[in-house]
Amino acid sequence: MEILIPILIVVALVVIVGIYLWATYNSLVTLGVRVDEAWSDITVQLKRRADLIPNLIESVKGYAAHEKGVFEAVTRARAETLSASTPAQAGEAENHMQSALKSIFAVAEAYPQLQASQNFLQLQSELVDTEDKIQASRRFYNGGVRELNTKVKIFPNNLFARGLGFTQRDFFEVSEPAAIAEPPRVQF
């Protein structure tokens, strides 16, 4: 009987540690999937915005054909956005896209006929909606990354999380916060 009590205590501790590891592993997997889903949402919205850009450029081109530099900058920013595969690359592409969109809308302000165009107004509305969705997706992604990073860093999870393949993820941040502090002005 005396030897049975220490064995039961050891077995109980092993079971408790096993349950803790199982629950922690499952929560880390869940958070990882949530972050992956959120990143997918961001890429979908960035792609949607990139798909709107050629139509927007064509609408403005008819009125401001001499603004070739602005159109080239927007096209470069669009290509950079589509090729971004990490949060850091996407953040840098976001800086360039915001700057390019501000330029194209500054050009559009000089053309009252363009501002009255139904097609241009519809594109503006879709772009505003997409920008809102990008912002929401970015917040959701960063919230998921925050939860996952916290779970990976806290003790005792930090002792075994890396061994199980869980690492911290990068936040979706822009290198120049001033570039996105004010969204492109699309209301005329």
TrEMBL record:
InterPro entries given in the database record: LemA-like_dom_sf, MamQ_LemA
Membrane-spanning ranges: 7-25
Entry's Gene Ontology cellular component terms: membrane
Keywords noted in UniProt: Membrane, Transmembrane, Transmembrane helix
Taxonomy, superkingdom: Bacteria
Subcellular location: Membrane
Membrane-topology annotation of the record: Single-pass membrane protein
Primary site of residence: membrane
Family the entry assigns: Belongs to the LemA family.
Listed name of the protein: LemA family protein
Organism: Naasia lichenicola
